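Bumping with the actual sequence this time:
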Amino acid sequence: MAYALDTSSATRFVETDRDSMFFRFGTIWARIKEYRDRRDAFQALLHLDERMLDDIGLSRADILWASRLPLKVNAALELRRISENRKSSR
């Protein structure tokens, strides 16, 4: 009986560890998806014409630069920083 209890505990530990691994994978996958969704949303800026981009203080080159940033960098925040710097220097 004690042996069965030890086996049960070991099995539970393995299942918990496996569940934990799937949970971590799911969390990482959700984070990657969030980064990609954010990146896709700001790429709508590429469809604006030059005058509209100038009004918000950005250029097409800025957007293309931001689209090449690593996914862990929030490209929208970087574009906002560039825009605010340009607007303050006008």
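The tokens above came from a reply further down the thread. Helices lie at 2-42, 50-55, 60-67, 75-89.
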